[in-house]
C-alpha cells in the first residue's frame, strides 16, 4: 500500500511481538506503544519505528504481566485507543490482532472498515474455525466488515488443497475474498534476511499477491 | 477558429521547415474538414499522419504529391469514417415476432389508408389491397424496366451511387436496408437489360456462350437478393435466464459421436462435457463410438461416462445419433463433435430459451475453431482476418434467426427430445443430416434459435484436401435436400424460411457459375465471341454500378465477418470440386456417402498439393494464353473495339489474381504439432521443487503442454520439474510439469498429469473456461481497398509458389512483379490512422 502511495501505519497488538521482524527492527529494541498507552503518553508516534522502506510501525513492546490489563483497557474504550493511535484521516491504520484473543475482535469490529480473518489450510484450522464461528455467533449473521482470507495456498500439496477446498465449501461466498496469498518460500527467506519480499526477490509470486491484496484493501476501504 | 489556426501555423514554423509545416497544416485542414472536431484542434505529427499516412515516410518520394492528391480525393468522396457501434439491447426477449408484426402492421395500415378513398367503389377490402399491391409491383416493374440511353442510365446511377455512399456512412440498420434496396434496384435493372438486350441469338456461338454467362449472372443475382433478405436484420439473440429453482432444470444427455479420431482428440471433449455445470443427477455424457474401440471403452469406464456402440454403422453419424436416442432418455440432447470442447457454462447459457418458448426445438451455437484452417495456415492469416466460417456463424445464422430459420449444424447444439423423435430423429436421407433435421423440425412448426456466443471450440480442417472433402460433402448434401425435400415446395414453412433454406442450398451450386465467371473473358479474347452483345460503354454503365453497389452493400453488411474479395478466393478454391457432386446430387440424389473429416493430423513438411491445384493451374495457363491474345488483339483490332478488349483484359487480370490466390493456398504449410497451441494470457504461479513460487503468464496452451512468459531470464532450465498453479473456476489446481525449452523469458513445458482428474482440471482451466473463446478475433471494420491489396498480394504469392515448384528461374521475374506491385500499391489510398505496410 505504501508503494501505491497510501499513508500506512501498522500496529502490532500480538503478544508474540513478531511483526517487528518484518520491519527490520533490531531485536535489542524492546520498547513499544503498550507501555506508552498504559502510561497515558501524549503521542503514539513517539513509540513508532521507521523501517528502511519508509513504513511507520508501532511495535507492541515487551509487556509481560501488563498484557491483560492492556487488553481490558482497549476493550473498555476502543474508540479512545484508536484516537490515541491518531492516524492521518486519509491514511490506513493496520492492526495486527492476536489470533488467540477473540474479545478484541468483538470490541473493534464496529469501528473498523475491514476485519480480515487470516487462515491457512492445515488440519487444525477446521475445528478452530468451527469454534470461532460458534463463539462469535457468526451463524446468526456476519458483520459486513468481516471477511476470511486464505494464506499459504499450496494446491500442489494434496492435504493443503483438500483442506482448502473443504473450508471454501463450508464458508459462504460473501464472507470470503477472491484474493489469497500463495505459499512461497521467498517469504520465509525474506524474513530470515530481514528484508521485505520485494527487496529480497522481485520475481517472487508473493509480491504479486501482496500487491493485489493491497489494491483490493484500498478499494474496499475507500468504498466503505 | 482562424486565430487558432494562425497560432498553430506559428507553432509549426518554430520547430519545422516551411515544407514540413505546409504538410502538417494541410493535414490539420483535412482534420477539420472530414471529422470536424475543432475542440481537439492541435497540429502535430501524429494528427497529420492520421489523415495522410504517406507522411510517415521519412523522406519525400518522387510523385508523393500525386499520392496525397489521390488520398485527399478518396477521403473526400469515398472514405467512410468508422461507425460508432450501436448499443444493442440487453433484453433477453427476441424481437423477431414483434418486428415482423410491426412491419406487416405498417404495410397493412398503409394499404388501408391508401384504399380508403376507393372503398365506396369496391366491394371487397381484400381485393382493394391486392389491387394496390399489384399496382405497386407494376410501378416497380416499370421503373426497373424503363429503357434509358447510356447518358440517362449513367446519370441515374451516379445519383444512386451518391446516395449509397452517403447512406453508407450512417449508423444503424435502416441505412443498411436502403443500401440493399439500391443494390437490388441497380442489379435488377442490369439483369433485365442483360436478358432483353445483350444476347446475340443470330450468331449461334455468341448466343450459346452468352446464354451460359447470363445464366451464371442470374444465379448470382438470385443469391445476392436472397442473401440480402436473409440477413436484412440479424436478430442477435441474448442469453435467457434459467429458473432459479434447480428442480425445474431438465435432464440433458450429451452425445459425443466418434468414428476414427485419435483418443487424444476426443479426451478433452469428454472431460469438458463431464464438467459442464449442470445438476449432476440430470447430466449424462455418452461417447457414441462407431469405431468400436476397446481403449475408448476403458477410458469411458475410468471417467464414469456412458459408452454406446451399435451393431452396425448404417447412416454414419446420423445413424449413430439415432441409435443413441433409443438408448438414453434425457429430455434434451446436446451434441458435440468429438473435437468440440465445450465450456463449462454451455448448458446454462443455452437452456434458458427452452423455458421461454415451448415450441423451441433447437438452440444452436457457433462452431468455433482454435486451430487454423488451410486458408489461415497456408496464407499465415490465423486470427488476423475473419476465417471462412465467420460469415455463416457471425451473420447468416443471426439473420436466419430473425426468420425462425436457424439451421442445426451438427454440433455445439441442444435439441429437445420430443420434437426430434417426432420428426424421426436425425435425418438420414442426405449427407448433411443436420440441416435436413432442422428443415424437418421447421416443417412441423417448431422454432429454432441461434445464440451467437462461442461456447465450444474444435479443430478446423487440417489440410486443403480435407477442407475440400468436407465442403464437397456439404455441397452434395445441400443439393440432395434441394432435390429430395425442396424447401420451396411442401407444407409447413413460411416464405422467409423457404427463402433462407433455398439460399443455403443454392449457394452450394456456385461451382458452375464461378467457373463460368473465371473463363468468360476468354470467350472474347480467344474465340472472338461477343457474349455480352452491347457497346462497351453500355456495359460500363450497367455492369459497373451493379458490381459497385453489390460490393458496397456487402462490404458494409458482411465486412466484419468476411472481407471484400475473399469470397471469390474461397469459392474459386472449391468451385471445381463441388461442381461434380452437386450436379450428380441434383440428378441422382441418393448417390454419395458420408465422408468423415480427419482430425488430429500432422503435416511434417511444406509441400505443394499438385493434385488439388491442377484444375486451377490449367485455368491459369489458359487465362495467360487469353492475356497474350488480348494484347495482340488490342493492337490489331478496330479502334472502336479496343475498349471491349480492355474490359475483358481487366476482368481476366482479376481472375488471374484470384486464381493465383487459390494456387497459393495449395502449398501446405508444415504443422508438426498434433495438439494445437492456443494463444492466451492467463496469470499463473510456478512453484519449484524448493517451494519458491513465481508469478508468470501462460501465453499458450495445448492439450499436452503450455508456454510460459517468466518474470525474468534464467528462472527455469530445461529438464527442471515444476508445478504450475492455475485457477480453475473458483479453486486453484497445481499441475506437475517438466520444462522442455527456455528462450530468454519464454519457456515451454510439458504437463505430466498424475491422473485423469488432474487432466480434467487442466482442460477446465483452459478449454473449458467460460470466457475461453470470447474476444478471440479482433472484429475489424471492413477496409475494401486494404482487402484488394491483400488479395492481389496473395495472388502474386501463388505465382511465386508455382514458379518455385516448376521453374525456379522464373522466381526473379515474379519477385520483380511483386516489387512493381508494391510500388504501385503506394499510390492506393490508405485508411486514416493505418501505417502503411511496406
From TrEMBL, chain B:
Its main location: membrane. GO terms for cellular component: plasma membrane. Residues 254-423 form the Glycosyltransferase 2-like domain. One of its GO terms (molecular function) is cyclic-di-GMP binding. The keyword Cell membrane applies. It catalyses: [(1->4)-beta-D-glucosyl](n) + UDP-alpha-D-glucose = [(1->4)-beta-D-glucosyl](n+1) + UDP + H(+). The chain crosses the membrane at residues 128-144, 150-167, 174-195, 207-228, 504-524, 530-548, 608-631, 643-666. Residues 671-760 form the PilZ domain. Its cofactor is Mg(2+). Its EC number is 2.4.1.12. GO terms for biological process: cellulose biosynthetic process; UDP-alpha-D-glucose metabolic process. Pathway: Glycan metabolism; bacterial cellulose biosynthesis. It comes from the Bacteria. The keyword Transmembrane helix applies. NCBIfam families: CelA, PRK11498.1. Catalytic subunit of cellulose synthase. It polymerizes uridine 5'-diphosphate glucose to cellulose. Belongs to the glycosyltransferase 2 family. This is Cellulose synthase catalytic subunit [UDP-forming]. It comes from Idiomarina fontislapidosi.
